[in-house]
């Protein structure tokens, strides 16, 4: 405890770090305040049906990432998700399109062009999603009665403009946090939205378990202990790496010697990050669009029930498959082998060139399989927790996208804090070892 207090004092004594933390907290506060401002023309007292419907299926994921703004018809109802969608699309295109690959290698100028295109794409995606959200709100069974009659004639135009401006403002907040604050702004905005539901979910679970039929406080304590164990396992998954020894040939220039040192090439157990879970969830929600056909109602109902055994099996297979697919897209052993060869680096006992690429690819395949299986288990844990009696709201924190994002973002932020401490020769946050964040690709495209 004494060491923790001293570490907090060290953090607060660094002026640059203190200003970054305060700046980040203020911008996050602005975002949370805006998430409670209802859209013009909407009566907040008539949103009961929207609050219940918007917590189911894929809408529940959107509402989770938006911190409840989606279900409360807020000006930030779309949150940062249009920007995330545009970023994921541009990231995949940068891998698949040679022209964008070349632009990425141009350095800062190329990245600025890609970022500018991402912003333009964000505006287009936001306009489409805002239009769909307005149609959703105007349906009588959702929130049609909550729309004030005097706003009905121009509700579509005004709401689309407000939602688009709100998303662009949230995107600007994320960029400001990244530039002048602490951590990745976009990731922190998503994490703060997810964490906003945590206290209420814990309180609801505590109330339910405290009742006569809830199982008592012992069961609640066991649930908290299991949640802590899952978080510890996720930390191992996020930080787990396989180090490959790399030797560099000695070079003598004049009277000075360069190279000759041994370094390590770290290969992450989970290089794909949260992307396989996001892709798998998107695929699993597609059958729900076919609920209007009698022949597909049973399939849609099965694949929309997180606690169904068939849902878990199909979902796990999709997560494992997308993990291998996305890892193959972002990880290029051939390019790594060429870079090592150009810098006079080699793996002991392995010939440079194609044999090195084959060796790195073989190791990558071996460590990706257990990482993919563990990621699939994390994805189905909320359904398992729900079947074991955990309330639906609290069960979402036992795994899945929400918990994986929270653990990864917190580790990234702690890594930056530790860097500031070590630069000024203070002790780090951990007594032994070093906090490792996620890979850049996974961090930027949650």
Automatic annotation (TrEMBL):
Compartment(s): Cell membrane; Membrane
Record's bilayer topology term: Multi-pass membrane protein
Predominant location: membrane
Keyword terms of this UniProt record: Cell membrane, Membrane, Protein transport, Translocation, Transmembrane, Transmembrane helix, Transport
GO cellular component, one term: plasma membrane
Family stated for the protein in its record: Belongs to the SecY/SEC61-alpha family.
Function description: The central subunit of the protein translocation channel SecYEG. Consists of two halves formed by TMs 1-5 and 6-10. These two domains form a lateral gate at the front which open onto the bilayer between TMs 2 and 7, and are clamped together by SecE at the back. The channel is closed by both a pore ring composed of hydrophobic SecY resides and a short helix (helix 2A) on the extracellular side of the membrane which forms a plug. The plug probably moves laterally to allow the channel to open. The ring and the pore may move independently.
Official protein name in the record: Protein translocase subunit SecY
Record lineage: Bacteria, Pseudomonadati, Bacteroidota, Chitinophagia, Chitinophagales
